[in-house]
Amino acid sequence: MAEKVTTISFERGNPSLDSFPVAQIKECATAILDSDSDTILQYGPVAGYPPLRTIIGSWYGVGPDEVLASNGSLQLLDFLATLLLRPSDTVFVDEPVYDRTLTILRRHQANIVGVPVREDGPDLKVLADKLRQGAPKFFCTIPDFQNPTGVTASLAKREEMVHLAEKHGFWIVEDSPYRLMRYRGTDVPMMQTLNPGRVIHLSSFTKTLCPGLRVGYMVAPANMVKALGDIVVNTYVSPGFLAQGTAYEFCRRGWFEPNVEKLRDLYRPKLASVAAALCTHLPQAQWPEPDGGYFVGLALPEGTSTADLRERGRKVGLGLSDGRGFFPAGGGDRFLRLAFPALTVAEIEEGISRLAQLLAGT
User: DSSP of 28-45, one letter per residue?
Assistant: First the structure.
């Protein structure tokens, strides 16, 4: 009987199971219930658990009235779209872009316009050309270790994007869930620090703690946080304070920064193994080598179809994403996103070897 092949999946950006600080999360949940159960178990402020908002605000140099905590950053993007958009309003996005971002914007019937992502961030010439046709309500971009390409926007491009937002009167939605997952190199300043009055910053504890807590947050002008209040309260009445309180306790104890360092040490060799395996097995592919994050985006050789690769990949135990899903208006036939954190170094090597065999038709 033939030996069953173990499936190796590059499809989803899941954290590694051994990254979760289970014992510490248990301790924090118990501690916050012991110290503040009257608040944690009751209805409360729609903007989120006040002590957590205060801590987050201190990271960004703002007060808690400029922080909104919610059930992950995707929900905050949905709230923003509800507040800012009407059907057919224009929104600019990275191209390619995180597919769930497209799902949310399509649900709000937005006119979605892609700005191509180059090796140092969005193409500013294309951005300027599109602005001459009209400004969007906002430009949604992932400047740090972009999903799905892995690219980080340069400081010069961030400064110019903020300048254009000020000049043309649109918002920048800076989606930064991967920012702290830097494995080498130097941080680039956030756009939020370049112009807090024009940039809405989104992030979460999904990649730095765990997805299961469902704690995301927005940093935005206080009047916007207040305006979102009615949408929030009409969605879920009151936030999930037990999860937010647990995240707060984790941060209050000084465990957050050491946990981030642990994650960097865990994922750094995995990204290095992706690069090594691609150089060995797929030298014909084009890809910008990231300095962090969860993804490496590949441009596969001419004549390749990721839809076909996915189908053939299933037969050899290889899970692949459909590159077309990351493009707002068609394209992506040769684009492939590799998500690596949930895999071991050995699985990464074997998975990319299988991919190369598929491409070679063997």
Answer: HHHHHHHHHHHHHTS---
